[in-house]
Design goal:
Length: 445
């Protein structure tokens, strides 16, 4: 047991119900409550992210850190400081009472001066994490490598015009993947933060695509070589920090994976605010992934409708989250994935306890969304009208078209003879919206 930082929150956060006035309690989230035959905790698989919660002192491009984060101010030996930060993380996640955390290699270990320093520091922090995990029971939802902060990655990692940067990224991923494996991580994430471009004037799109595919192939090979059984995940984002990022959205990544025969190797980690930056809804990117068998995990957060960048706010819309959870349950629920809170406090939320308020609110909103989604699924609220709408595709002509036994000629003959005479039917959007709201308003917290 290391030093305690969250002394204002002496006990783990418990369930107190909707009537409670205690802000440090769950209003809906009850880990042991059964929903569709599974414990809520196992349906939701919540993780806390290390980078925004423990590494970030609240600076923005206009000003320095504002947060009360004593574990970031220890100074002196970088390894001592890293262990203090890890103590803060394990204390927070234990008190929040959720099963997982997620981190980048450099979130937990100082980079040092050389690659050898990096490797030694990471190894030693993984030892410490292993200790703290077995003490607390907290698990690793996913690990990843930060291939975007260091200046060497300014022009990308695997898509860098310089192969020695590609090599450096490969070496880093090797260590981060092995660290994730050692810690029993359930997934490994690749977010190509700077794998994109600032200007087409200096960019060879075809070359960079080939480089990225070769990198993903090497990662999948190494996964097999070391016997890592977790899921490899790609996290789409359309832009920021680059003007254009190659892993633009669910559909673009899917197309890329198919093009390079990698579709069986990777699934997606979908982030709410990334989907909305791509001009979609969060619902869209999740629905696309689930319906194409490439859904893996979620980075839960939300953007600001009036702000054009990744604000990473805590998710709080039950309306939005219910439809996301509905898609996930429709696909059979999470396997190795979960809801990682890739979320940042606002810069004015200075207090250490604000970190609890952000997570508690987001977890409760997700728990309520889970209950709504289970009701939607059990009552066939959306699935009945959907199967009715597409019923023609299991009848004669529809089946023939899909099985290839019809042609333009045969269909023209059917239309010409008057056998097929379509009459438009209502899409019933408002009716469906009302039904969804009825379930949201009526579901029992
Ligand atoms: C950046 C982002 C990353 C990834 C992991 O927008 O979401 O933190 O989740 O590298
Ligand atoms: Co993310």
């Amino acid at each position: 047991m290391g030093k305690e930082f969250f002394t204002d929150v002496p006990e783990p956060i418990g369930y107190a119900g909707l009537d409670s006035s205690d802000p440090l309690s769950y209003k809906v989230y009850q880990p042991d409550r059964l929903v569709l035959g599974k414990r809520m905790e196992d349906q939701m698989r919540v993780a806390v992210c290390y980078w925004h919660s423990f590494n970030w002192p609240g600076q923005d491009v206009f000003g320095r850190g504002t947060f009360d984060r004593p574990w970031l101010e220890v100074g002196g030996d970088a390894m001592v400081a890293a262990r203090q930060k890890m103590d803060a993380a394990f204390e927070f996640v234990s008190k929040l009472g959720v099963p997982f955390m997620c981190f980048h290699d450099v979130d937990i270990a100082p980079e040092g001066e050389t690659f050898a320093d990096y490797a030694t520091n990471l190894e030693s922090m993984v030892d410490y994490a292993e200790e703290r995990m077995s003490e607390t029971g907290i698990r690793l939802l996913w690990g990843t490598a930060n291939l975007f902060s260091h200046p060497r990655y300014a022009a990308g990692a695997s898509t860098n015009p310089d192969p020695s940067v590609y090599a450096y990224a490969a070496a880093q991923v090797k260590h981060a993947l092995e660290a994730t494996h050692r810690l029993g991580g359930e997934n490994y994430v690749l977010w190509g933060g700077r794998d994109g471009y600032e200007t087409l004037l200096n960019t060879d799109l075809r070359q960079e695509g080939i480089q990225m595919a070769s990198f993903l192939t090497m990662v999948a090979e190494h996964k097999r070589n070391i016997g890592f059984e977790g899921t490899l995940l790609i996290e789409p984002k359309p832009a920021e920090p680059t003007k254009h990022q190659y892993d633009y959205d669910s559909q673009t990544v899917h197309g890329f994976l198919e093009r390079f025969d990698l579709a069986g190797e990777y699934k997606l980690n979908i982030e709410g605010n990334h989907a909305t930056l791509a001009g979609h809804s969060f619902h869209h990117d999740v629905a696309y992934a689930v319906s194409h068998g490439i859904f893996g995990s979620i980075d839960a957060n939300r953007g600001d409708p009036q702000t054009g960048w990744d604000t990473d706010q805590f998710p709080n819309s039950v309306d939005e989250l219910s439809l996301i959870f509905y898609e996930i349950l429709k696909g059979g629920g999470f396997t190795t994935g979960g809801f990682n809170f890739d979320t940042k406090l606002r810069r004015q939320s200075l207090d250490r306890s604000d970190l609890f308020h952000g997570h508690i609110g987001g977890i409760d909103a997700l728990a309520k969304a889970l209950l709504v989604a289970a009701d939607l699924l059990e009552a066939d609220t959306l699935s009945n009208p959907l199967s009715h709408r597409y019923a023609g595709w299991s009848e004669d002509v529809g089946r023939g078209i899909l099985s290839g036994s019809e042609s333009l000629e045969s269909l023209e003959a059917r239309v010409m003879s008057g056998e097929l005479d379509p009459s438009p039917v209502s899409g019933s959007q408002e009716l469906l919206e009302n039904r969804v709201n009825q379930v949201i308003w009526g579901s029992e917290a």
